[in-house]
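To make this tangible, this section ends with a sequence with its structure tokens:
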Amino acid sequence: MPRITIGLGIILILVGLVSYIVTSFASWTALIPAILGALILISGLIGLKNQKIGIHIALVFALLGIIGTAMNVFKLGELFAGTAERPAAIIASTITFVLLIVYIVVGVRSFINARRWKNENEVAAAE
């Protein structure tokens, strides 16, 4: 899971940098996915040493990122209608939102599998 976290962090940094470049360096808010990616990347690096803490921190950042990007995701209709004020922000937010949702699902499944594996081994050791 730490490697997935590090990979996600790198991808989000790239999304933020590309959106900043595409918007002609007009607003630093285009870098929000990159900032979020850096925090997740650092959490992944922490996860290499202490997986439990690092991945929990990364999942908290991912949840906050989902909450923060949801506002622009709701504007997808405006993007498709051609009336969006900031189409690049909507696209970058949607990409970030989807990546973070997938990451949370993978993270939760990983924790469930780890708990299941631990419980099975405890039962086997007790027998």
